[in-house]
Amino acid sequence: MNVDDLKVIVQEKYGTIANQNSLLEQEQGCCGPSGCCGKPEFSMIGDEYTGIDGHVSDADFGLGCGLPTEFAGIKAGEDVLDLGSGAGNDCFIARTLVGEGGKVTGLDFTREMIQKARQNLTKTGFTNIEFIQGDIEEIPLPDSAFDVVISNCVLNLVPDKRKAFREIYRVLKPGGHFCISDVVLSGELPESLKKETEMFAGCVSGAIEKENYLEIIRKQGFFEVEIKKDKSIAIPDSILLNYLNENEVKKFKQSSTGIFSITVTASK
């Protein structure tokens, strides 16, 4: 499968999710066996957003794997960019941190998600949030424009992560930094999982080795690369059995292979 095909899959899957009313009403999950339809069997984020200032339930489709604003060090008056902003969830939280004197820009690859985010924005009354459609590998924004870049369980879906982090470096101001929550691997996923496009669009098979991920960040010029949170993600047997037989599931669970949610920061 080529890069363009993968991008089309991501757009189609997340476009379908965007056309649902909300995570709670439609019982959507990030990594269910059908990608984006049906009762969720596998949730990355859990209830970490409970009680967070700025959380908008209509903007929360449960597609994250962390809480990037927790370690982003966002200050009042700053310009923040959220990559893969979806229905706007993390943007609205970032807006409570930058206040009226700052600005938050959400970038998403999927037209339907941008439309949903703009609908949610009208309910908030905020005037300093903007949602635009674009590709993270070619961010349609100027150099040195943002103090902070955040992203939540999105870069693992980007085929060329080197391009993505190069673009993040470009749009950050000198002295700026990013805080990204993402999915990474320890060891190699079974081949049947790698080939499964629904798992790709469901956040797992697009992930790469953790050390490789960190090395890509460093090679784009970032420094002070630090993992702020690192937690193992256990995939239930009910999900694995969609892709592996019982013997393969047993071997997978006994191996050193693991799937992890990390929140990483780095500075320009």
- The number of helical runs is 10
The secondary structure category is alpha/beta
Q: Count the beta strands.
A: 7
**What strand line-up does the widest sheet have?**
3-2-1-4-5-7-6
Radius of gyration: 18 Å
CATH topology-level fold name:
Rossmann fold
Strand content: 15-25%
**Runs with pLDDT <50, length 5+?**
23-42
Oligomer: single chain
Order of helices and strands: HHEHEHEEHEHHHEHHE
Number of domains: 1
Tell me about the largest β-sheet.
7 strands, mixed
User: Which range best describes the helical content: under 10%, 10-25%, 25-40%, 40-55%, 55-70% or over 70%?
Assistant: 25-40%
Distance between the termini: 34 Å
Task: Return the CATH class.
Answer: Alpha Beta
- Average pLDDT score: 85
CATH superfamily: Vaccinia Virus protein VP39
The 3D shape can be described as globular
Q: What is the name of the CATH architecture?
A: 3-Layer(aba) Sandwich
Describe the structure.
- The chain has 268 residues and is an alpha/beta fold.
- It has a single domain (3-267), classed as Vaccinia Virus protein VP39 (Rossmann fold, 3-Layer(aba) Sandwich).
- Helix content is 33%, strand content 22%.
- The chain has helices at 3-18, 23-26, 89-98, 111-124, 161-171, 191-195, 197-201, 210-219, 237-240, 246-254; strands at residues 79-83, 103-108, 129-133, 146-152, 172-186, 223-233, 258-267.
- The radius of gyration is 18 Å and the shape is globular.
- The two termini are 34 Å apart.
